[in-house]
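Researcher: Before we compare anything, I want clean individual predictions. No alignment, no superposition, just each chain on its own. First chain goes here; please echo the sequence and then give the structure tokens.
Model: Echoing the first chain and its structure:
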Amino acid sequence: MLRSCIFERSDKLKCLGENFQPFVFAMGVLRFQRILFRSSVGSSGLTQAALTLLLIICCSTQEYRAPPFIPNISFLWVWNIPSERCAINFNVHLDLNLFSLVGSPRKTAKGQNITIFYNSRLGYYPYIDDKTGKGMNGEIPQTGNMIKHLAKVRKDIDYYIDVDTTGLGVIDWENWRPIWIRNWKPKDIYKNLSIELVHQQHAELNDTEATMKAKEDFESAGRCFMETTLKLVKELRPNYLWGFYLFPDCYNGFKDTDYNGSCPDIEKKRNDRLNWLWKESTALFPSIYLSSKFKSTLKAALYVRNRVLEAIRLSVVHSVKHPLPVFVYTRPVFVDIDLKYLSQEDLVNTIGETVSLGASGMVMWGSLNISQNVQSCTELDNYMKNTLNPYIINVTLAAKMCSQALCQDQGVCVRKHWNSSDYLHLNPDNFVIQLESNGKYTVQGVPTLEDLQQFSQNFYCACYANVHCMERVDMSEVHTIKVCVPGDVCIDTFLNSGPSGQPSSWKEKSATSSSTLSAMPPATGSP
């Protein structure tokens, strides 16, 4: 049952029933080699009756994805790195044309279409400072002041987000977790303080009874803070998509030598207890940040794959036919090594996985270290030009091409076998991505029928919500391909207009003043 929370005159937190309305608050081993293109599938030998049964099952289990947040941008790229300092302080100008939403996470940045709210930027979130140990705003959710919190939320939203604008609003509250048992060390301080509070209020309870009540009170109050904050920010900025960073999480970090990346069943059940959060959110923001232990390993793909799939599983709690968009947070560097950038293989294991599973977009986040001096800004610029941007172009164009061929642009391509290593990449036999002397990217090449058949063999179409789409089976019916990414980088051609690999139309082609960057990637196959 949905609940909302208010304070009585005693300032003790109370949760009311579902009829309470928010007006109360009117205040295989992946290797870098060419993609293997398989032969067409042979006759299945299924009877007509069996085919009919399969069609019924297929139609009754139609899978949906959230429609594009921005029209014609089927996969949303978001830049949330404080890189503005590179241009302002060091005259290093980064190419951010591929990113439809650009914003800085710095506290002074406002009026952006991607805004992240840390624990000190939105209302009076109760927490204990990790560095100083100082209690802030009541320390634990049970002793926070909701009235003051919501009044401050209003002011903060007015300060950071302009009225009648569109974008993403991400709340980053990581000090405590709303599920009691997930507050393991060092977050167990929230459990200890909650038990102490119960003992103060109910001296007659023994330790076991006090712990049980503390758990109930903590989870109820934590839910109230998160749920009610979401209700208010959605009311204040209804054109934004709102959710909490790192929700959902499935705690599938690498531990064992036989690691397979799976989310523990117990953690899935705990995520199911957060259905109230998935129902109140309008977007999900899981994280796939990599530590160096995952560098250039299959384990990285398994780690990312299962985290993204868990978010997609929970995206339908809101509605099976109208799932929430899933925007996956990633970083260009490893979390435990300053300025150690992800390799092309690492990008396949993060970005490639995310796109192939049918997520709605990715948020590229970074800390101040990435733009601290001219050297770090230059390294970032070179990395983007030669590694990151070419791969984004590759995977985005491939995904759009697949969508156009299979879904007629009315859905997204999703990996048929979720635990395979089938990726949405341009065929390196037929395509080359180049950086021209004018700083623009071009794609040289055309797809073949075999390319499209490879997509059809390994991917299926998940329709956008509110759209009736039919998956195209016969790829020979596709006669034209026209797909673009921001920055006017396009593949625009007639199919079968010439020999395989010979382009019929190259956009802004320059044969003499360009640098070949990428044709991408790895072999397909099961891990």
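Researcher: Okay. Second chain, same rules.
Model: Second chain and its structure:
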Amino acid sequence: MDEFRILFVADVVGHPGREAVKALLPALKKELRPNLTILNGENAA
């Protein structure tokens, strides 16, 4: 059976949240190899 991996990141808040995502997301995606990445950035402004 094939796997479908979802990486979900919730509640990215402000500039610190954006910087954390910018720093950490590439490594997370490389390690976890998701088919779909969802990021809740509604509070990122």
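Researcher: What stands out in the second chain?
Model: The chain is about 40% helix and 20% strand. Additionally, The beta strands are 6-9, 36-39.
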